[in-house]
Amino acid sequence: MNIFNLLQRAAKRLKTNDPTYHEQADTTLAILRSSGVIPTKRATLNGSLHKLVSAMIVEAYDADTTIDVATRRAGTFHYFGFSTKVISYLDNAIECNLLSSQSGKAKGKLSIGSLLDSYLSNTPA
C-alpha cells in the first residue's frame, strides 16, 4: 500500500481509543528507538512523528501489505503534510533489518522484517 495512504490511515487510527493498536505502535516505537532507527534525543518534540512512523508500520502489518515508497523526494512528503525525516527513518530500519527492501534503501516495496513481525504477531488481542 502506498506510504502516504498508510501514514494517513495511521494518523486517523492513532486518534481512536484502540488499546491494542496503541500498544502495538508503542512496542514498535520502542524497538525502533532501541535499535537506533529513531533517535531518542528531542523525543518530546518529535514524539508524535516517531509514533506516527511506528503506527504506519503497524498499519501495514494489520493490512498484511508492503510499504510502497514510490518517491523519496522531500517535496512530495511536505506536499502531503508529512515530515521529510520519514525516509531517513525507513532507511535506518532497513539498515537494521527491521524492514527489508530489494534496493537496500527506502524505495519500492518494503516488507516488515522478522523481528517486528514476531513482536506484532504476539501482541494480545
Describe the protein's architecture and organization.
With 125 residues, the protein is mainly alpha-helical. It has one domain (3-121). Helix content is 58%, strand content 8%. It is built from six helices and three strands; from the N terminus they run H-H-H-E-H-H-E-E-H. The protein has helices at residues 3-14, 19-34, 43-62, 74-79, 86-95, 114-121; strands at residues 67-69, 99-100, 108-112. Strands 1-3-2 form a three-stranded antiparallel β-sheet. A hairpin with a 7-residue loop joins strand 2 and strand 3 (108-112). The mean pLDDT is 92.
Features:
125 residues, 8% strand, 3 strands, globular, three-stranded antiparallel β-sheet, 6 helices, mainly alpha
Topology:
Layout: H1 3-14, H2 19-34, H3 43-62, E1 67-69, H4 74-79, H5 86-95, E2 99-100, E3 108-112, H6 114-121
Antiparallel strand pairs: 1-3, 2-3
Helix pairs in contact: 1-3, 2-3
Structure classification: mainly alpha
Q: How many angstroms does the end-to-end distance come to?
A: 24 Å
Number of DSSP strand runs: 3
Largest sheet: 3 strands, antiparallel
Range of helix content: 55-70%
Order of helices and strands: HHHEHHEEH
What's the Cα radius of gyration? 13 Å
Spans of at least 5 consecutive residues with low confidence:
none
Provide the residue-averaged pLDDT: 92
Widest sheet: strand order? 1-3-2
Continuous helix count: 6
What fraction strand?
5-15%
Domains (count): 1
Which word captures the global form? globular
